[in-house]
Amino acid sequence: MKKYWIITYGCQMNKSDSERIALTLETMKYLSASKIDEADLIVVNMCSVRQSAVDRVYGNIKNFDKLKKKNKKLKIILTGCITKYDLKKLKEKFDYVLSIKSLPHWKKLLKKKKYIYYPNQIKSREQFSANMPRTVLGTLSCNYLKIKPKYTTKFSAYIPVVIGCNNFCSYCVVPYTRGQEISRSAEDIVKEVKNLVKKRYKEIWLLGENVNSYSSNKVNFSKLLKMINDIPGDFWIRFTSSHPKDFSDELIKTIAKCEKVTKYISLPIQSGDDEILKKMNRPYTVRNYKNLVKKIRKEIPNLTLSTDVIVGFPGETKKRFQNTVNFFKETSFDMAYIAQYSPRPGTAAYKMKDTVSHQEKERRDKVLTEVLKKTALKNNKKYIGKIVEVLSEYERKNWLIGKTREYKTIKFQSLRSPTSLRKSDFGKFVRVKVTDAIPWGLKGHLI
Description:
The chain is of the alpha/beta class.
């Protein structure tokens, strides 16, 4: 039988899409290859959000050419979040360029020798809402989500609840590649969660480019969380990524009250300077964000707070960057994804002059990372001596690795023996006593 191999770049949404691609190919009688050299079909699920991810796709092309010389029948598909600019450069390098939304039709499309099916993308914010009814857009966008995924693990699952984005942050290509924000029906989501819980899944991730703006048939994100929380079973609910403008008081109280919703929140700030936030088209100020965090921490004292930030955005002077440094020190994040700004063609920021050198972006990245190390270590030390609930995930060098309810990575050994927890127990909840803390996690002993 023919075999497939999937290469995934990007966020959890891309990973979730790859799970659906896998099952689609298996219904077409393909088997999963144990290594790329065995594959008759390679799928590259790419992300155009950051230049580094695009560069990795280009970096693979020479390797693909070598593989094709060994296997004359090898076909390669490009899919995922692709800007029109990347599409122009890459389309001749692949046998197929297929929109992820066309996944239900791949069986028919792959019968062609070479094919490009990537519908015209929007070019401006004005075109974004032009004339096509939202219900029609919703049908086109969500049909592929009805395909069941081949989940990567047997205990943790991604469930997309919102696809697309309406925000048009000036640096971001997502509205152009994913399209208009569309919410799946609450019924479909709840059904998927119930099926996973029956299979004893322990961790459910609700995904969206702007997950807390979810809205479908009078069900907002708070109500959706309550509906899932009410499903009988022993499991955790996590979600990402949130937008500060959509984090309502109702949502804060819901997270605090729902026992299955873990107290981990990813809340991107992107910059600690008001002028830069304005240039980024982020509709809040640093003060707004600080007040929001204050409210959240008041309702959820044991919160783990993560953020995203971009360094070196056009116009970010040393003084403005220092505002971000001061903000990081004051807010005391547990985790942060620090990205160095890279211009993306088609975005509003692409027209702005890239005023910060690569070397200076590197330096600013390191400065923020050092601040984060200190705040993360301080926060993690509060867990020393406590007994925490952990979802065990895998073993590495005689250490058992897992995540706490608060999404802290913890490595631990049994007080009796490093191997007392069998591999068959991975994906289950265990109790661990925390004995030490490091900036990026915890250490402990299995109880």
